[in-house]
Structure formats: C-alpha cells, structure tokens
Amino acid sequence: MELRKLLKNIKPVAIKGNEDIDVTGVNINSRLIGKGNLFIAMKGTQVDGHRFIGGAVEAGAVAVMCEELPSELDGGVTYVQVESTEDAAGKVATVFYGEPSKKLKLVGVTGTNGKTTIATLLYNMFTKLGYKCGLLSTVCNYIVDEKVPADHTTPDPIELNALLARMVEAGCEYAFMECSSHAIAQKRIGGLHFAGGVFTNLTRDHLDYHKTFENYRNAKKAFFDGLPKTAFAITNADDKNGMVMVQNTKAVVKTYSTRSMADFKGRLLECHFEGMYLEIDGREVGVQFIGKFNLSNLLAVYGAAVMLGQKPEDVLLVLSTLHSVNGRLEPIHSPEGFTAIVDYAHTPDALKNVLGAIHEVLDGRGHLITVCGAGGNRDKGKRPLMAQEAVAQSDKVIITSDNPRFEEPQDIINDMLAGLNAQQMKKVISIADRREAIRTACMMAGKGDVVLIAGKGHEDYQEIKGVKHHFDDHEVVRDFIGTEERKS
Ligand SMILES: CC(=O)N[C@H]1[C@@H](OP(=O)(O)OP(=O)(O)OC[C@H]2O[C@@H](n3ccc(=O)[nH]c3=O)[C@H](O)[C@@H]2O)O[C@H](CO)[C@@H](O)[C@@H]1O[C@H](C)C(=O)N[C@@H](C)C(=O)N[C@H](CCC(=O)O)C(=O)O
Ligand SMILES: Nc1ncnc2c1ncn2[C@@H]1O[C@H](COP(=O)(O)OP(=O)(O)OP(=O)(O)O)[C@@H](O)[C@H]1O
Ligand SMILES: N[C@H](CCC[C@H](N)C(=O)O)C(=O)O
Ligand SMILES: [Mg+2]
C-alpha cells in the first residue's frame, strides 16, 4: 500500500522523504520488520522503541514513524513524525489491513471480570445461530473454527488488525473481543469500528499499571467514550460504575440488571450444581451455568444478541444449550462424591463472587476447601485481600503458588498470609507446590464437599523465571480422581 494512503487518518507533524512509496507491512516491533515495511517506534514501559529505528532500517524498513526524528536520516527512508506513535499505530494498522472492523460487526467487552465468559459465549451463540464468527480472548483466538493461540487478552494493534482481516477473509460476519484496560490505555484498539460495547463490572485490579482506581476506571470508560453513535453500549446497572461508563458515550445505551428496572432484566429462580433456572425478560429458561454473576454475564450476552438483531426467543433457546467456558466455574465431579471446581478467579472480587456462587448451591450442606495463590510481578496489593476473601467463605484454605514469574513463590505466599490474623490462620495451610496443594485438598474432601481451585482456570502452564512449564489444574485433579476429560 502507498505510504500516503496509509497516513489518511493521522496528522503528521512532519514528513521527511517520499510519501509515494509502497509499504509492504507495518510493525511496532523491529524484530518483526521485513523488506519494504513501515516501522512504528513506540515508547514502551521497558524500552524506548526509538532505539531500534536503525535496526529496523537495516532489516529493510523503507519508512519510519516516530515522535522524535533520529539525528541522522537515511536518504532511502521516509520519516513520518507524529505527536504520539501510540495513538497513530492502531489507526495506521487498521488502514493497512483494509479497515477489517468496518466489514464485520465487532463487539468489544470490557470490565474487570466476565470479559472472557461473555465474549466466548457470544461467539458460541452466534456460531450456533449459523453465522461465521471470530473471537479474540484471553484463552484463545478463533477465526471461525481455526484456533490461533493468544498471548494477551487483547493483542497489539498490528496482530489485532491482522487477525480481524483474516476473519473478514474467512467470511466472518461477527467478531467478539475482550478489551483489557491495558489495551484501551495503550490504544491497541485505536481506529477500530465497533458495532457495540459491553461493560461487565469494575473492582480492583492492575493497580500496578494504572496506579489509581480512578485511572483504571477512566481507561475502561475511554472505550465507551470512543464508540460511534451507530453502536450500542450495554452496561451493568447493578455495578456502581455501570452508568459512569456510559456517561459520555455517543452510542445507544441499554442496561441490564438482576435487581432493578432495566432494558434486559433477569432473575434467579433456582440453582443446582448442574445449572440454574432463570427468568429473563419474563421468559423462563434453564441454563448450564452456576453462580449469580453468571446470570449477569448471561444477561449481557442476551442483551448484546438482541441488540445485534436476534429474536429474544431464539437467543434464549441457544442460551440453554451453552456450557461453562474453559476454566470458568468448571465443575469436575469425583467418583467419591465431591466436586472440584476449576476457576480463573485471580482478583479479590472474583474470589468473593465465585465462593458466593458455590455457597448458593452448597446451601450449608458440604464443606468448601479453597486452593489459591497470586501471580508474581503483578499487583501486590491484591494478595492479602485475596487471602482474606478466601478465608471468609471457606472451611479450609490452602495457599499455594500461581505463576510466580520472576518472584519467589514463598514471598508471594507470605504477602498473602500477611493479610490474615491468628484466628483466620487456623483455617489456613500453605503448600508452595501447586500440584501437592491440589492433591491435598482433594484428599481432604468428602462426599458433598467442594474443592475450589482458583486463579489459573484455562492456563496450561506455570510460568517460573521466564519459562512456561506445562501445568493444568484440570489435569492434576483428573489424575488424582481418575476421571476423563469433558468432550466438547
Ligand atoms: C505493561 C504492558 O502492557 N506492556 C505491553 C506493551 O509493552 P511495552 O510498551 O512495555 O513494550 P517495551 O518492551 O517497553 O517496548 C517498547 C517498544 O519497543 C519495541 N521493541 C522492543 C525491543 C526490540 O528489540 N525492538 C522493538 O522494536 C516493542 O515492540 C515496543 O513497541 O506493549 C507490548 C506490545 O503491545 C505488549 O506486548 C506488552 O505486554 C506485556 C508483555 C504484558 O505483559 N502485558 C500485560 C500486563 C497485559 O497487557 N495484560 C492485559 C490483560 C490483563 C487482564 O487480563 O485484564 C492484556 O491485554 O493481555
Ligand atoms: N460477572 C462477573 N462478576 C464477578 N466475577 C466474575 C464475573 N464473571 C466471571 N467472574 C469471575 O472472574 C473470573 C474470570 O472470568 P473471565 O475470565 O470471564 O473474566 P475476564 O474479565 O476475561 O478476566 P481477565 O481480565 O483475566 O481476562 C471467573 O473465573 C470467575 O471467577
Ligand atoms: N491477565 C491476567 C491474568 C492473571 C492470571 C493469574 N494466573 C496470574 O498469573 O497472575 C494478568 O496477566 O494479570
Ligand atoms: Mg479475559
């Protein structure tokens, strides 16, 4: 594509060199630059991408986009100076890939918890309704039924637009994606055209990155501020920040609620370990999910599907056939009669909710044993709070390792234990080896009890000092209790 065309949505501060050159690719990473590419130099949290301009040119870049021009310019290269490369990257990437989001109905889901659940269920639902769909999520990306492994909840702007373009090429009509707060703040979704946005909820997470809760909230809100007036914005009226999110949006606002008047209203009628019986907009429906928060998630899915033009009765029919997303409140029943539940709760609020959801079903009839840890090189402030939440609603807690990354597992465990007083400590043991922790919990469980294994959900690795070792909570449980994997 001609460089001049590529720049159509941005206002450069200066251009040095020829704009009428052909650009064969765009990247923000010099290590991925090939012959004829445009390299966009971004100031990151670790290094300044401007350092790699020389390397990118050596690797074949014919154009460079940057905030500061290098002191020596290469005669064969066109330099495009912009105020913010972070802002420009998404806009340029989307033009390069043929503005794929305009050729799809793209729905973004944001909020602290529930993004993967909602985006995946929308993808599953629209696939069952007979449409070709794409999915960008923490667990895995899909182009129709082709799996593309995901490194991030939201890919960088280049990969993101490349994936959307592949969805268009594969004939997809819909795409559903998670928008993480990091991605919104870093403008990874810049230049995308959304048909709709969904807000789940907002509680503490990622304060290591955003510093204050207000910054974190504003990052999420920026997604709704940027929606066009042709889009819908579905928000959770039960969350205290639900209406704040859509305060300044141009999109058509719709609400969902399990408690008060809303555009999409739901009520829990009954729950068991096999599922719940719900009333949604006056119709009764049985679903294969547990936990009141899943009622909220399902209302968001229902609302988005209706806003995308589906008939409520068709949506509810499909909703009743969907089942839990990998590692999200996923039950594994043991022959001895206890239930292990693998869940991705890795924030204090998610732990509180997941434990609450289990109690709704246990209803005082069995014990609850929780295995949990916290990730290394992530928000330290949440560690003691997670331990407190686990203790508050469990009969026994085994504190263990999650992904220690570059930290010492025992240091993370100690940070968690520091949140507990002597009384609370009576319920707690710590076993740094996660496999041993899970086995011990299963050994302690009797008929009717529940073992919650929280924090890693779908992850099939444990990241220790930069190396991902194979580790799968489901597998450890199944090895111990001797049952087979779920088929679909
Ligand atoms: C803190 C954070 O979000 N970092 C992301 C950010 O990296 P960064 O700005 O720190 O990049 P950097 O390493 O300083 O490099 C700066 C620039 O120089 C470039 N570079 C670097 C080295 C080189 O040799 N050549 C080169 O060109 C890099 O490509 C980059 O463009 O931009 C990169 C490209 O988009 C991301 O890969 C990277 O994600 C890191 C790996 C990460 O762990 N991010 C996590 C925290 C994250 O984003 N998580 C959220 C989900 C959280 C949730 O579940 O809610 C996500 O969306 O997954
Ligand atoms: N609506 C909800 N409210 C509160 N907790 C929830 C909700 N939905 C899911 N959870 C809990 O949060 C965990 C993560 O859910 P999910 O993966 O859907 O969220 P996410 O927003 O994609 O998370 P991430 O930011 O890590 O990608 C689940 O395992 C569950 O314990
Ligand atoms: N997307 C989240 C996932 C955390 C999952 C947990 N298992 C951990 O490793 O901390 C993050 O990167 O902060
Ligand atoms: Mg997710």
TrEMBL record:
Localization annotation: Cytoplasm
EC number: 6.3.2.13
Gene Ontology cellular component annotations, sorted alphabetically: cytoplasm
Residue ranges occupied by any Mur ligase N-terminal catalytic domain in the UniProt entry: 23-70
Residue intervals of the Mur ligase C-terminal domain: 327-457
Pathway recorded for this protein: Cell wall biogenesis; peptidoglycan biosynthesis
Catalyses which reaction(s): UDP-N-acetyl-alpha-D-muramoyl-L-alanyl-D-glutamate + meso-2,6-diaminopimelate + ATP = UDP-N-acetyl-alpha-D-muramoyl-L-alanyl-gamma-D-glutamyl-meso-2,6-diaminopimelate + ADP + phosphate + H(+)
Positions of post-translational N6-carboxylysine modification: K220
GO biological process: cell division; cell wall organization; peptidoglycan biosynthetic process; regulation of cell shape
Cofactor(s) needed by this chain: Mg(2+)
Binding, meso-2,6-diaminopimelate: R378, D402, N403, P404, R405, G455, E459
One Pfam family matching this protein: Mur_ligase
Gene3D superfamilies, alphabetized: Mur ligase, C-terminal domain, Mur-like, catalytic domain, MurE/MurF, N-terminal domain
Binding, ATP: G111, T112, N113, G114, K115, T116, T117
Protein name: UDP-N-acetylmuramoyl-L-alanyl-D-glutamate--2,6-diaminopimelate ligase
Origin organism lineage: Bacteria, Pseudomonadati, Bacteroidota, Bacteroidia, Bacteroidales
Primary role: Catalyzes the addition of meso-diaminopimelic acid to the nucleotide precursor UDP-N-acetylmuramoyl-L-alanyl-D-glutamate (UMAG) in the biosynthesis of bacterial cell-wall peptidoglycan.
Residues spanned by motif Meso-diaminopimelate recognition motif: 402-405
Residues covered by the Mur ligase central domain: 109-305
Natural source organism: Leyella lascolaii
